[in-house]
Automatic annotation (TrEMBL):
Domain called Nuclease SbcCD subunit D C-terminal: residue spans: 262-352
CDD domains noted in UniProt: MPP_Mre11_N (cd00840)
Subunit record text: Heterodimer of SbcC and SbcD.
Signal peptide start-end: none
Pfam families according to UniProt: Metallophos, SbcD_C
Keyword Nuclease: yes
Domain Calcineurin-like phosphoesterase, first and last residues per copy: 1-212
One GO-annotated biological process of the protein: DNA replication
Known function: SbcCD cleaves DNA hairpin structures. These structures can inhibit DNA replication and are intermediates in certain DNA recombination reactions. The complex acts as a 3'->5' double strand exonuclease that can open hairpins. It also has a 5' single-strand endonuclease activity.
Matches recorded under NCBIfam families: sbcd (TIGR00619)
GO molecular function list: 3'-5' exonuclease activity; endonuclease activity
Family: Belongs to the SbcD family.
Name of the protein in question: Nuclease SbcCD subunit D
Length: 379
């Protein structure tokens, strides 16, 4: 069968304070157009439907219109899961009757072991979960990481495999060897969210969500679709779109279909005089989201207001003079951002006490941070 793989819609997300609902609705229309042109049999959404566990009313309205058009009006079966940004409890409201229109939405771990069968393919819809969920479901106190939990999950799924069908896993996590961008929330708690690619070998295709670039992972049977929009400057050069996947029992093929943003994320450079010159600003698309690199050294009074009168969507201004010191500060900040919460605690503990944490203390930190993260997602 043929299906469209998308993910990380993040409905309701803002870009440096700018509302993206119009851009998200436009990207959805392009996705729907591709689905019709490619004559897909289903649409897969691999998590992070919303950007927040408690989305705004406006975000809910936009998402509802998308589902109505995609599923009820255009009659596309939809296979979706909750991601780490979604509230599984809130998202599952209405789930029991969604399936009556071929809208399959899994938000709990226990739902993942009953595959949805369409055409020649079994779809295993595995929502984002934390180790405690696997620990409780499998009644195994030794499960402390997502890797350990995924070993049990995959083993249980393989028992449901039908040999005459293709097997597709839809999930939302970080596969070891993938590359993140700035807009992806750091989930790692002492390595809890990392899944080895080797665990996924038994599936014909793994439709992943969580990372926002389609090239974050290059595997023969697994891909991230990436987000439909650019959510940070680090994604400026990424191509956004969806995967069209064809499954056969003995072969799986996939092709990327690009979409064009309503407003792009762009970086421009120049002096204040150049940037405010009519000849320059009329030569570019001022409706884009712009990151500006200024070459001036002098202080410019009311600079930001003057720039925004010409460029309505400025997402940042960077002065290029003193770049070496700025780069040093940025590198320090970047190093801190890449540390997992447990690593930050461990670093703080060492600086304060002059000693290393014991293995038992590290277990306590992991368990408590996981519990706090789970409680925060459930709000």
């Amino acid at each position: 069968m043929r299906f469209l793989h998308t993910a990380d819609w993040h409905i309701g997300k803002k870009l440096h304070g700018y509302d993206l609902l119009e851009e998200q609705a436009d990207a959805f229309q392009q996705i729907l157009k591709i689905a019709k042109e490619e004559k897909v049999d289903a649409i897969v959404v691999a998590g992070d439907l919303y950007d927040r566990s408690v989305p705004s009313v406006e975000a809910i309205e936009v998402f509802n219109r998308m589902i109505v058009e995609m599923n009820l009006q255009e009659k596309f079966p939809v296979l979706a899961i909750s991601g780490n940004h979604d509230s599984s409890t809130r998202l599952e409201t209405g789930g029991p009757w969604f399936v009556q229109s071929d809208f399959h939405l899994n938000t709990r771990l226990d739902q993942a072991f009953e595959p949805v069968e369409m055409g020649n393919t079994q779809f295993f819809l595995l929502p984002y979960f934390e180790p405690i969920s696997a620990r409780l479901y499998f009644d195994n106190e030794e499960i402390r990481t997502i890797e350990h939990g995924m070993k049990e999950v995959v083993t249980a799924m393989e028992k449901k495999f039908k040999p005459d069908m293709a097997h597709v896993l839809v999930s939302h996590f970080f596969v070891a060897g993938s590359e993140k961008s700035d807009s992806e929330t750091k989930l790692m708690v002492g390595g809890l969210d990392t899944v080895p690619l080797s665990l996924l070998e038994s599936f014909d295709y793994v439709a992943l969500g969580h990372l926002h670039g389609k090239n974050a992972l290059q595997a023969e049977n697994a891909r991230y679709s990436g987000s439909p929009l650019k959510f940070s400057l680090s994604e400026m050069n990424q191509k956004k779109g969806v995967w069209i996947v064809d499954t056969e029992v003995d072969e799986t093929r996939f092709e990327f279909k690009e979409i064009t943003p309503l407003r792009d994320v762009v970086q421009i450079e120049g002096s204040f005089k150049d940037l405010t010159a009519q000849a320059f600003y009329e030569s570019i698309d001022r409706e884009n989201y712009l990151h500006i690199q200024l070459t001036d050294r002098a202080v410019i009074p009311n600079m930001m207001n003057q720039l925004r009168q010409i460029y309505p969507r400025v997402i940042g201004v960077e002065r290029l003079f003193g770049r070496e010191e700025q780069q040093k500060n940025n590198e320090t900040k970047k190093e801190i951002k890449t540390l997992a919460p447990t690593e930050l605690v461990d670093q703080f503990f060492s600086e304060v006490t002059g000693e290393e944490m014991t293995p038992q203390q590290q277990v306590w930190i992991n368990d408590n941070l996981s519990a706090l993260h789970q409680a925060e997602r459930g709000k």
